[in-house]
Amino acid sequence: MQVEKKAAEEDRGGGAEAVLSLGSSLSIPICYHSSFGLDDDLFLLEVDDKLLPDFLQNRCFKLGVSLQKTLFRFDCEDFCHDHHCCTMGEDARVSIRGQPDEDAVLCTPSSTYAMKFVGTSNSVFLIPPGDVSTSNCKDSCADGDMNRPVIASVYTVAKGNIELIQVAPRLDKLKNLLRERPYKLDEDLIGDPRQEIGLYSWNDLVQLIQASEEELRTALKSLSALEIDGFWRILDDKSMDDTLDMILRNAVLHDWPLSTLKEDSVLSVLEADGFPGTIVSHCLGTHGCKTFVSEGTLCSLDEKQVCLRLAQRVLSKGKMRLENFMEKWELLSATSGMKPDLKMLEGEVLYEKIGVEDWIRAFSVSSLSSSPAERFAALFQERPKWQWKDLEPYIRDVHVPGLSTEGLLIKYTRKTQPKADAEVIFSAR
Amino acid sequence: MQIRVKCNCGEGDCREWAILELQGVVESQPAIGERLQGLEIGRLCCVSEGNYTFTVGYHELSGTKIPLKKPLLVLRKKKGETSGELNSSASSEAELEVIGIIRHRILFKSRPKALISRPLVKDKKAA
To answer: A269, A407, B3, B70: least surrounded by Cβ within 10 Å?
Structure first.
């Protein structure tokens, strides 16, 4: 198809309204805009209707971006050529996040989306809205209205658009960052030349982690992280153990019921022993649930959480005979009036038979990647064949938008059943 | 580097852009070259509600207006100058601005119909 006519030189406005509301039997000339081809800085972003309010509002969003260019992968170099990330502002609702070695993700306040550029071989003419031209050129008149010349101008030809695909937040990095420098009860930051090395504030995490703010908060909670002096930290195991021991010991000493511990009483006693109040309060929250009543805060210690912590301590030295483990675990738990049960250890331990003896060892789901491919690879490296009852606790927390647990199993495992009445066995695909 | 995405309109006020989508490429005559600004491509005619023809030269395309399953936002990259800290030189800062929304496209997916056909030339038979 060849274009032959040359239209009038003056800019005749956009005219998207004229195109979209063109009446029956009327026609309108389509021209190249006077700025056609001069502006390559337009992007088309396909957005679900439910996300529109996050984009269309009278405020700024801030995007911290700088990502490596790859074919068919949305790349922030298309936006800028400066390789520095920025901090998110308080007014940010939608942001694109990632480091130079990461694929870009778009984050709304509650969800994370991968960005994929979808090219097209069609000619996609973009016509902007525009004011009606004052030109009297006869060629430019919409049929039937000689006094109101209307033109639709093609501003650019789109090469494709960016699609958003909801993905699970990329949280493995968060674990690694927080493990760089766990909080120790005896640490003293004053006078430390490396005071802030390995420490991350909320703004640092927002900038570094590819997750929405809601997902980031949930992840921090599930990792039992707390904010200390403006930095998000996890407690090292010894500090958590020492604090929990002290709470349990004092509960026995002062006859405190573990189901209704008065937080104020616990804090006053432990602070007198040199334990920071924030750490004690955090330990209570991690191993139980708090309720707020008129007299103050009551904390009910969760038997499963406490017993799990004690089991991890027993198994910290490595693999042991199941009966030896049970003996030590029950002894530790009994002092605080807890009743341990092996069901409490789902997703935390693996059992194996060596000869006639049963052995147990720590293998925690929290040590595994949140990426399904990496998770299954690690599981099958640990054990080539799994029964469903053993496998389920290790994949329970894997969430892939649009994919059920059944779908995950089909994608990453091979199912075999030696006999009709035998248990199903899962192995690597 | 900080990239801001600005939207100066509310959800109901975002101005709508239009899309004309053709299956193929529109070429200008060699004499015109790259100077396309202001050039008339063709004429869009509404035949009946939702049905259109687009006449480009002596080609006529038939198409329909289709609502998009998901709207498209038109984002524009802007580069501005922002002054940094005191005594520091002005640094280049990129911005993204939502400048429009697209909810429909007019799609011409059929092959173009020729409006001018070459007359048949009958060969004269030698006597």
So the answer is: A407
